[in-house]
Design the sequence.
């Protein structure tokens, strides 16, 4: 399975591919026949992805909600970022998205394009009624991405801003 947009391919990694990613982005890229990005996971992202991977292994039947979704720029056949869900839809049909894009690809519209595709996919799933995301207060670029996806701010804390959108029926 993969999502396709005008400029991007978005691939939910299999458990095997996810494990390769954690062992080194280059290993995952080789498995997917992608051009080398020369990227590495920083320590914080590595730890977060390790935790997500463990959840994906425990929830094999619904691993799409726990795996990493690679964002690939079609024109270069190169991974430029990733996205994920934090867990499967809860009892209220709520899912949370997270994402990141490599620095040199920021402010080019790619993250908005990817986030829109991922939100559309989530909206089409029968158990989803609400999609949420959290941003840091000063992450203006991410605020713009979420606004362009149709999300609205619904809560602000000392740590961040929470956004949401209703899934399309």
Sequence:
């Amino acid at each position: 399975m993969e999502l396709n947009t005008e400029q991007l391919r978005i691939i939910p990694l299999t458990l095997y591919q996810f494990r390769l990613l954690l062992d080194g982005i280059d290993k995952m890229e080789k498995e997917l026949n992608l051009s080398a990005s020369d990227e590495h996971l920083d320590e914080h992202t590595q730890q977060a992805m390790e935790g997500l991977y463990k959840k994906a292994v425990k929830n094999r039947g619904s691993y799409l909600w726990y795996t990493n979704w690679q964002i690939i720029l079609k024109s270069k056949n190169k991974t430029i970022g990733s996205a994920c869900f934090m867990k499967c839809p809860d009892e209220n049909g709520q899912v949370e998205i997270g994402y990141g894009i490599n620095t040199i690809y920021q402010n080019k519209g790619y993250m908005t394009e990817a986030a829109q595709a991922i939100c559309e996919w989530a909206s089409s799933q029968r158990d989803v009624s609400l999609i949420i995301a959290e941003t840091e207060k000063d992450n203006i670029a991410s605020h713009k991405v979420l606004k362009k996806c149709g999300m609205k701010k619904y809560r602000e804390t000392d740590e961040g801003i929470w956004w949401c959108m209703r899934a399309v029926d």
